[in-house]
Design a protein that fits this description.
alpha+beta; elongated; 9 strands
Length: 177
């Protein structure tokens, strides 16, 4: 009985030390000047951040919305194979993160592994964190090379898509109670 009570108390403590979102925003831009913008937004990224600075996020690739429906169709079917690889996942850690000292607009380095189309690559990029009441805002931008994730861009449209894809994350995480 004591063991059960200790487990329940310990479990609640661990559970309360997490911040989550299911409505995180992930955007990407692969535009080249003089051509139609190649960009999309996903407003349903799930992410979790612990008080120790561990972070994990995932999104459904098919949830990226484009201004042009045909572009969205090509993205999912020809490049991302979202029926075979439905999710993109990131797992990492915020370096030198001290939850107790977190206030407003502090820059940290986020290091981790991004998995797209079943291929994982190490990333390191700056993130801006701020804590307001019981919410933590996390913002950052990084670039990826499509070839690194096995994404082949046909020569016929190669000049219309940037060689490096800029990805921006903007998560408002709430304390899990």
């Amino acid at each position: 009985m004591r063991l059960l009570i200790i487990f329940l108390i310990f479990g609640q403590t661990i559970f309360a030390q997490k911040y989550i979102t299911r409505t995180g925003i992930t955007e990407f831009k692969a535009s080249v000047d003089a051509f139609e913008p190649v960009e999309a937004i996903n407003s349903s990224t799930s992410a979790i951040l612990t008080k120790k600075g561990d972070i994990a996020s995932q999104l459904f690739v098919s949830a990226f919305l484009f201004k042009v429906a045909l572009m969205q169709e090509h993205f999912n079917e020809n490049y991302m194979d979202s029926d075979i690889y439905p999710k993109a996942i990131f797992r990492g850690k915020i370096e030198n993160f001290d939850f107790e000292k977190l206030s407003s607009d502090e820059t940290y380095t986020l290091k981790g592994k991004l998995t797209i189309r079943g291929i994982s690559k190490e990333l390191s990029f700056p993130v801006l964190l701020s804590k307001i009441n019981k919410r933590i805002n996390l913002k950052g931008t990084f670039s990826v090379n499509p070839k690194s994730f096995g994404i082949e861009i046909p020569n016929i449209i190669r000049k219309k898509i940037a060689r490096k894809i800029n990805i921006t994350i903007n998560y408002e995480l709430s304390q899990k109670e």
